[in-house]
Amino acid sequence: LSPGAKMGCFTFIKVMMILFNLAIFLSGGTLLGVGIWVKVDGESFLDIFGTLSSSIVQVVNVSYLLIVIGAILLVIGFLGCYGAQKESKCLLMMFFSVVLIIFIVEVAAAVLALVFTGLAETLLNGLVTPLLKENYGVDRSFTHIWNVTMTEVHCCGLNNYTDFNNSYWYETHGSYPTQCCANMVETCNSTLAAALRVDGCFDQILEEIRTNAGVAGGVAAGIAALEVAAMAVAMYLYCRLDEK
């Protein structure tokens, strides 16, 4: 290619890099804002987006997840957009490094999820079950999120009704949440809960994930492809700056 064509190609890729990362930056800011909104007023968020209440993200505190993802996207978008605009080798290399680390973590997480599903279940139990015992019936947003989830997904606790044994809710009310008895009675005791055997939310969500595995895999592959493309473009700009 002639020097003019090379410069035109460089300029085009630079502009695309800026626009792409500007979109990432704005998306990150949006997610961060929504995460803060959910943290501050989770009940009104669920009232507005009630149709999404059966989503897997309702099992954990979605606000922290949105805040973390939003903050990461803000950093990535800033490094890529500002680094390309200022033609800064330092910022471009930082952008490349951050995306590479995220890509490696995603691949490692996918491998671990496939190979160590039992371990993931154990870790989830160790994290979520104590939260249920301590916060269900105490934290209004946490309780509301779990109530909506258990009602929409038709499940009880993470594993089953025993997750509420020795919990604040059971000690206060002397019964399990009505969802543990399929909402058939107002007072759900251990005899009815054991007889009805309502599945835990973890098993229900796993089944939902298996049902939509193709879609999830396609989305994951698309994200991975975008990350690889972003790293390639960042490295191209980085190397072309040496020639300039």
Query: How is the biggest beta sheet arranged?
Result: none
Report the principal-axis shape: elongated
Q: Treating each run of at least 4 consecutive H or I residues as one helix, how many helices?
A: 10
Order of helices and strands: HHHHHHHHHH
Cα distance spanning the termini: 15 Å
Total beta strand runs: 0
Low confidence ranges: 51-60
What portion of residues belong to β-strands? under 5%
User: Averaging pLDDT over every residue, what do you get?
Assistant: 81
Portion of residues within helices: over 70%
Number of domains: 2
The assigned structural class equals mainly alpha
Q: Rg to the nearest angstrom?
A: 23 Å
Protein name: Tetraspanin
Pfam family, one: Tetraspanin
Keywords: Disulfide bond, Glycoprotein, Lysosome, Membrane, Transmembrane, Transmembrane helix
Subunit structure: Interacts with SLC19A2. Interacts with NTRK1/TRKA.
Account of the 3D structure:
- Belongs to the tetraspanin (TM4SF) family.
- The chain crosses the membrane at residues 12-38, 58-79, 91-116, 215-239.
- This is Tetraspanin.
- It holds the Pfam family Tetraspanin.
- The protein is mainly alpha-helical and 244 residues long.
- It folds into 2 domains: 1-86; 101-243, no CATH class.
- Helix content is 76%, strand content 0%.
- It is built from 10 helices and no strands.
- Helix 1 (3-40) packs antiparallel against helix 3 and helix 3 (62-86) packs antiparallel against helix 4 (89-115).
- It is elongated and about 80 Å long.
- The model is unreliable at 51-60 (pLDDT under 50).
